[in-house]
Batch of 2 targets.
Target 1
Amino acid sequence: MLRRTVVTTALGLSCLATLSTPAGGQIADLEALEQNCDSELQRLPPEGLFPYTERPHRCEGSHGVLRSPVDFQLRSVFRSFDDITIDSTGDPITVGWGHAPDAEVSIRIAGVVNGQFYRLDTRTPGGFEGFRWDVEVLEVIAGERRNPPRNALSVLALSATVGDTVYYPVDVAQGNALVPSCGALRMTVWTDTGLDSLWVEVSGSGISEPARRELDGAPYPISEAFDFRVPEITRAGDYRVVLTGRFGVDDDGTPIRLPRTYAVQVPEGYAGPCGP
């Protein structure tokens, strides 16, 4: 399916574009997006040349440190993530979630680029299966560091329905379209405090008994995103992923354990891990 639409860039320039995906779905351009701002970040003092603030169809920019209590954050659920170049004169970056839900999809892009915390918050109306990410603001923040390391940026796509939030695995690619590929589903986590251990439990489609395991790699990075494979998810379906972090002990010696539950929906056509 081809779609001719008005593209409004991050700095307010407009042009006409025709976009498509190999599967025939629609990719939302900036003009189709809606603001979805984080009030906590908006309350922080302005930071950098392009501070996080309301911009056409999204909130975007650099921000100060948002201190949180002992906790961890889910930053991304993804299948593929290209090495990207932050350059508005070259190929754009396309983010897709493999299907077009009726409900709106919220997108959150977060990371540390050129020593600055970066965030973009927006959402697409129902009926889209991805969006094109204009990087002109990010390009200014990045300066000469146009090739961020893989873990510098994380992308999260989610849909909030009544009483539930569903996370969609994303593919992130340089270019106008996404090329479906096989690959194990991965999740990205961020923490500002020392995380002693992280346990993963997966249940849902095709899993007869919940699979629970402790992640290798402790001690985990602090103030840096890290990702891990979720090989238990091998096909389309609805899943429940419980991440339980342990953060030392409290005053009476009881271990501090924080469980977080995420509903993950994998669309039809998911290829799963590569190979036979």
Target 2
Amino acid sequence: MFAATLSLTLPVSQIAFTYSDSIPIIAVVMLSDGSLVLVAEGQDAKSDLVASNAKPEVFASVSWRENPYFAVTSLRNLLVVEITSLSLRLLAVASAPDNGECESLVLISVSWNDSQEAEASLSGKILFEGRVLTMVQWADSLDGALVELEDRELLEYDCSKSPAGALSP
């Protein structure tokens, strides 16, 4: 069962949900080609099934400001870690192209203007010795995440410690 649908141009690869009173964005969707779409709660149309739920709508399609050093289709574990009135920051893992190589934690800045034109750029990178098993947001804020490595080591990512964020055991 679903309360609303949203048609996009390509299949969805992953979704990072968020909530903030300061922006209308409710989710960031990564499509199968690595492009990003910002989804907002619709202003007019309400869901027929859920009384207080508005149907989602595309707020903006995001273009990359420059080509990142990695294939955007290699991104996984997308998380929203910071929100301001005209921007947000995403944390993701750039998967290693080969089994023996290391993975990177990348910080992506997404900004938009009043005409809903959005751009993404790479704003930080942390290289791991090994592979990331999973990542989850902090339960009480958007300021960071817990990162579990393949060897079961837990690291804490804090985006407020430097422009690129910082990892600590």
